[in-house]
Every structure is written in C-alpha cells, then in structure tokens.
Amino acid sequence: MQSNEKQPSEYIDSLPEDRKEVMQKIRECINTNLPEGFTEVMNYGMLGYVVPHSVYPNGYHCDPKQPLPFMGLASQKNNISFYHMGLYANEELLEWFTSEYAKQVKSKLDMGKSCIRFKKMNEIPYELLSELVRKISLEKWIEMYESNLKK
C-alpha cells in the first residue's frame, strides 16, 4: 500500500492506530542509528532512507531522478515491511542477520531479497534492527552498490 503523503511524519500520522506506535518505534530505531549522510524521505510511497543527490549525483540506476535507496519502511495490509538493500547486496551481512534473528525471535523469519516482513507486532527485534542499521556506512553502501552494479 503506497502512501501519497509528502513528509515522513505525515505518513506515520496517516496510519491506523494499531500500526502507529510500532512504525514510530521502528522509525526511531532507524533514525537513532542511521549512519551520517543518509536522509529520511518519502520514497516509493513509504519511508525511505537514501543517499541524497548532493552526495551521489548519479542517483538510482533504475531511475536516476531518484536518490540512491538504502532502506525503506512501510505499513502494508498484512505486515510491516522493513527493506534493507545491504541484505541483498552483501551475503555476509545477510548470514549475520538471519543467524541473529533466529537466536532472538521465536517465529520463522519471513523475508524476501531485501524485505523483512513483520506480521506479529509483538515479535519485532528492535535492538537487532538498530544494529543492522548501524552496520553499513554511507561510503560503504555506495561502494557496495557500485560493485554490484558492475556485475
């Protein structure tokens, strides 16, 4: 479900009551731990955490008018989706995350290539998400992105 809201705070305010608190808590985990240089925006109808054009003028290769995406957070119909492109781009990071998730959460990890889906709001590993957010600096993300783009 994409939002037409223009500001991250408006997006959170527009959510159903049962999602606001959880989404705000994840957003706080991200913003508190987000490495320097990334910017929070509305991107693709959800909260986005991007490398701004002022830092990476080339933008996203699929649409250079868009800033280079790094993470996203969305309230979907049946879950909250947390997107972390580093999990898709770096196998070592993915292995670390899946291993730590299994140690910390009772339910099975529901994940796509870069999308972690949380269906049980009481089983979100906030500390693990915070640690994941800290794992990749802006410079490292650009390096990983360009390296994978050349493949």
Question: How does this structure look, described?
Answer:
42% of the residues lie in helices and 19% in strands. It has 151 residues and is of the alpha+beta class. Strands 1-2-3-4-5 form a five-stranded antiparallel sheet. A hairpin with a 4-residue loop joins strand 3 (68-75) and strand 4. The longest helix has 17 residues, at 17-33. It starts with 7 loop residues before the first helix and ends with a helix. The mean pLDDT is 93.
Fill in the keyword field for this structure.
five-stranded antiparallel sheet, alpha+beta, 151 residues, 6 helices
Q: State Rg.
A: 15 Å
Order of strands side by side in the largest beta sheet? Answer: 1-2-3-4-5
Topology pattern, helix = H, strand = E: HHEEEEHHEHH
The biggest beta sheet reads: 5 strands, antiparallel
| Model regions low in confidence, pLDDT < 50 over at least 5 residues | none
Oligomer: single chain
Distance between the termini: 32 Å
**Gross geometry:** globular
DSSP summary: helix tally:
6
Q: Which band does the percent of strand residues land in?
A: 15-25%
Report the helical percentage: 40-55%
Query: Overall mean pLDDT score?
Result: 93
* Class from helix and strand fractions: alpha+beta
Q: Strand tally, please? A: 5
